[in-house]
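Anyone up for a design puzzle?
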C-alpha cells in the first residue's frame, strides 16, 4: 500500500505538531482541540493500521477493529502500544513498511486524549445539501463556487489571485475546452473580457465539435480504449473506433451523464448498444495456448474493476481474493458484483458492426465465489448484487446496477463524476485521488463544495456542459496562475486551497495537435478509423506490429486522438508525455518532466516537419524585415506580444543561424533560419503549458 503522507498536513495540524514537539504531549493534549478525524487521523489509521485492524476478518489481529465509528477503544492500551520501545509490543510493529512519523504519533496522542471519537468515512455517507456560504462581508458571493473557495481562504488569511490577463484566459479556455490554440489576432487576444463576453466565449467553445474530441479523450483514458486485444498476439479490433466516435458524439450533444452511464453499463438492454463498447475495451488473451476459461475470467475481472474505479472511485479489485483490508467490501460482495458481468457474451451487431455486449441467457452458468480468487477453488454460487455499504441493494440486471449507481442516494457516483470534471479544469480534483474515494484515498480539500457540486450536477439533469460552464465562469477558474503572494506560497505551497490557478503541462496529444495547428498542417476531420503516423523501424523490435504502414496523404496530420492504440506498440510521443498504456482504467494522468520529453520536442519527426512548414509560412512575409516577421511568428505561436528582450534574443538567434553579425544589417531571413526560429518557439515551455 502506498504512503498516504505525501501531502503536507493542514496549517492547523502543522502548528499543532510544532507546539507538541516543544511541549510535553501529555500536558498539552487535553488543552488542545481534537484533531480532525477525517482529514488528520483516518489517513494515518488507513495506512498504518487497517491492514491488521480493519474490515478483513481473516487478517484481523487482537480482535481489534479501528475502522468502525463508535467502537469502544482502550485508550490507555493504544497509547502504550504507540509509545512502546519493545519490538513485541510497539504498534505498528517494526516490520511494518509504514512506521509512524513523529507528527503522526503526536496527532494520534491528541486524538486519543480527546476521547478517540471516530466518524464514518465521508465518501460512504449520503451527500448533504449545502448552501453557498456567507463571505466575511456578510453576503454570499455572486458565484457559489467562489463563495466556498473564498470562505476557506479567509479562514487561512488568504485571498484569490487577480484575474488572468485576457490573452492568457482566452488561451486557457481554448486549450481546456477544445485542446486547440485560439486562432485570433493580437488585438482580439488582448481585448478585455467582461462577464457577458466571457460567457459568450464559453458557450461558443462548448458548441464546437472539437469539444467532444477534447473531453472524449479524457473519457477514453478511463475506458482503457485501444484498437487491439493486447498480450503477445495483440490482434487488431478494426471496429473499436466506433466506440471512440460514440463517446465524441455523446460529449458534443451533451448526453446527460445518467443516460451516458446507462448506455455503457447496460445499453443492450435498452436498445442503445453502442455504448457497451466500454466493456469490450478490456484486454483479451486470444493466444492459441491460453486457457479460455482463465482468459474469460480475467476479462470479466477487468470489467468489474474498471466500472468500480471509473463510476464509484472504488478499489473493488482489492476484494477479489479476500475481504477488502481498508473498505467495507467483502469477498462475497465482490463476486456478487462480478455476477453482473459474468452472464454476458461479446457480440458484433449485424447492422452497423458496433461492438456490444449481450446477456448470455441460454448458456449462462451460475457465478461462484472463488476462494482466494483462485479459479480452481470455486465456492458457493452467488446472485448479482451490490455492496451493502453503498445503499439499498440493486436488482439482478446490469440495468438495475446502472440505476443503483445513479440513485440520488448513492454516496459516490455524482461525487466521483464532478471530481473528474473539476480535475481537468484545475489540474487536480477536490479529491486528489480520483481512483480511490475509499479510506486509503485523500480527503477532499473542500468537502462542502464537492457535495454542493454533486447535488447541483443532479439538479441540472446530469449535464456536463452546464457543470463545466459553472466551473469555468468562477473567479477561482479565471484567476492568474502566477505566484503573486509570498504568504500564500509559504502557507499553501501545493495550492490545495486554490488561491491561484495551476499552470499545467499539456498532454502529449495536445502538444502534437497544437504544433500541427500552428504550422497549418492539422487535418480537422472528425471520426472514422484510426490512423498510423510515420514511425521509425526500431519501434517494432517489440510486439507484432512490424507491418506498420503510415496512413496516406494528410491523414497522418489528424488529431492525436485518432492515432491507433496498439497495446504492444504504443505511439512513443504520447507515452513520453505520460499517456496511459490502456492496460487499465486511467482516471488521472501523471505529469513528469524528463529529458526525453525535451529531446522529443526537438527531434521528433512531426515537430521537425511542423517547424519546417511554419518557417515556410512566414518566409512569405520575410521581405518586410526580420523584426516584424519574427514578432509575428512569436505572436502566432505564443499568443502574446514578445517583450523587447525576447524579440532581441530571437533576432540574435536568427543572425547566428545565418552566420551574420549585428554590424551587417539588414538581416535577410532565409527559409532555414526561419525554420530554426520556428523550432525554437515550438520547443518553449510556455508553448507546451496551459497558463
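Challenge accepted. My sequence:
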Amino acid at each position: 500500500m502506498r504512503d498516504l503522507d505525501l501531502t503536507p498536513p493542514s496549517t492547523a495540524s502543522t502548528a499543532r505538531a510544532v507546539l507538541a514537539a516543544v511541549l510535553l504531549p501529555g500536558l498539552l493534549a487535553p488543552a488542545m482541540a481534537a484533531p480532525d478525524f477525517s482529514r488528520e487521523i483516518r489517513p494515518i489509521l488507513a495506512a498504518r493500521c487497517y491492514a491488521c485492524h480493519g474490515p478483513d476478518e481473516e487478517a484481523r489481529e487482537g480482535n481489534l477493529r479501528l475502522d468502525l465509528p463508535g467502537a469502544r477503544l482502550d485508550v490507555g492500551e493504544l497509547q502504550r502500544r504507540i509509545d512502546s520501545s519493545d519490538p513485541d509490543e510497539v504498534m505498528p510493529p517494526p516490520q511494518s513498511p509504514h512506521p509512524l512519523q513523529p507528527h503522526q504519533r503526536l496527532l494520534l496522542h491528541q486524538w486519543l486524549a480527546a476521547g478517540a471519537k471516530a466518524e464514518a468515512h465521508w465518501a460512504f455517507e449520503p451527500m448533504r445539501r449545502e448552501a453557498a456560504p456567507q463571505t466575511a462581508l456578510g453576503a454570499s458571493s455572486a458565484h457559489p463556487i467562489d463563495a466556498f473557495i473564498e470562505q476557506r481562504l479567509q479562514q487561512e488569511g488568504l485571498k484569490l489571485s487577480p484575474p488572468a490577463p485576457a490573452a492568457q484566459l482566452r488561451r486557457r479556455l481554448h486549450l481546456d475546452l477544445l485542446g486547440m490554440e485560439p486562432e485570433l489576432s493580437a488585438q482580439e487576444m488582448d481585448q478585455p473580457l467582461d462577464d457577458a463576453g466571457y460567457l459568450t466565449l464559453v458557450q461558443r467553445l462548448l458548441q464546437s465539435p472539437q469539444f467532444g474530441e477534447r473531453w472524449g479523450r479524457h473519457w477514453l483514458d478511463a475506458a482503457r480504449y485501444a484498437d487491439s486485444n493486447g498480450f503477445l498476439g495483440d490482434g487488431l479490433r478494426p471496429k473499436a473506433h466506433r466506440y471512440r466516435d460514440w463517446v465524441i458524439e455523446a460529449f458534443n450533444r451533451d448526453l446527460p451523464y445518467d443516460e451516458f452511464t446507462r448506455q455503457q453499463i447496460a445499453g443492450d438492454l435498452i436498445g442503445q448498444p453502442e455504448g457497451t463498447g466500454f466493456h469490450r475495451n478490456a484486454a483479451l488473451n486470444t493466444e492459441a495456448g491460453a486457457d479460455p476459461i482463465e482468459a474469460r475470467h480475467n476479462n470479466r475481472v477487468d470489467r468489474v474493476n474498471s466500472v468500480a474505479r471509473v463510476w464509484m472511485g472504488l478499489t473493488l479489485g482489492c476484494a477479489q481474493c479476500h475481504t477488502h483490508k481498508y473498505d467495507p467490501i467483502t469477498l462475497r460482495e465482490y463476486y456478487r458484483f462480478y455476477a453482473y458481468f459474468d452472464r454476458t457474451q461479446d457480440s458484433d451487431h449485424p447492422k452497423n458492426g458496433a461492438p456490444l455486449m449481450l446477456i448470455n441467457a441460454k448458456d449462462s452458468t451460475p457465478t461462484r465465489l472463488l476462494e482466494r480468487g483462485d479459479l480452481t477453488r470455486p465456492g458457493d454460487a452467488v446472485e448479482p448484487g451490490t455492496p451493502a455499504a453503498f445503499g439499498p441493494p440493486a436488482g439482478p440486471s446490469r440495468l438495475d446496477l446502472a440505476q443503483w449507481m445513479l440513485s440520488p442516494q448513492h454516496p459516490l457516483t455524482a461525487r466521483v463524476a464532478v471530481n473528474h470534471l473539476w480535475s481537468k479544469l484545475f489540474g487536480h480534483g477536490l479529491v486528489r485521488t480520483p481512483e480511490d474515494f475509499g479510506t486509503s484515498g485523500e480527503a477532499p480539500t473542500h468537502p462542502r463544495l464537492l457535495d454542493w457540486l454533486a447535488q447541483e450536477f443532479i439538479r441540472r439533469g446530469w449535464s456536463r456542459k452546464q457543470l463545466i460552464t459553472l466551473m469555468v465562469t468562477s473567479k477561482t477558474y479565471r484567476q492568474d496562475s502566477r505566484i503573486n503572494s509570498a504568504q500564500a506560497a509559504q502557507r499553501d505551497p501545493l495550492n490545495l486551497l486554490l488561491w491561484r490557478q495551476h499552470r499545467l503541462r499539456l498532454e502529449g496529444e495536445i502538444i502534437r495537435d497544437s504544433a500541427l495547428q500552428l504550422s497549418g498542417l492539422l487535418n480537422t476531420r472528425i471520426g472514422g478509423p484510426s490512423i498510423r503516423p510515420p514511425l521509425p523501424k526500431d519501434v517494432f523490435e517489440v510486439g507484432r506490429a512490424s507491418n506498420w504502414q503510415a496512413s496516406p496523404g494528410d491523414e497522418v496530420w489528424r488529431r492525436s486522438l485518432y492515432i491507433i492504440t496498439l497495446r504492444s506498440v504504443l505511439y512513443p510521443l504520447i507515452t513520453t508525455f505520460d499517456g496511459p498504456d490502456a492496460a487499465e482504467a486511467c482516471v488521472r494522468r501523471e505529469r513528469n518532466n524528463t529529458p526525453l520529453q525535451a529531446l522529443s520536442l526537438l527531434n521528433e519527426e512531426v515537430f521537425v516537419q511542423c517547424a519546417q512548414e511554419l518557417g515556410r509560412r512566414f518566409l512569405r512575409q520575410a521581405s518586410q524585415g526580420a523584426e516584424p516577421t519574427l514578432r509575428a511568428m512569436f505572436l502566432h505561436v505564443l499568443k502574446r506580444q514578445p517583450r523587447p528582450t525576447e524579440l532581441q534574443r530571437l533576432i540574435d538567434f536568427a543572425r547566428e543561424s545565418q552566420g551574420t553579425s549585428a554590424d551587417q544589417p539588414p538581416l535577410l531571413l532565409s527559409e532555414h533560419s526561419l525554420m530554426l526560429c520556428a523550432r525554437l518557439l515550438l520547443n518553449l515551455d510556455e508553448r507546451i503549458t496551459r497558463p
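A detail worth pointing out: Residues 11-119 form one domain.
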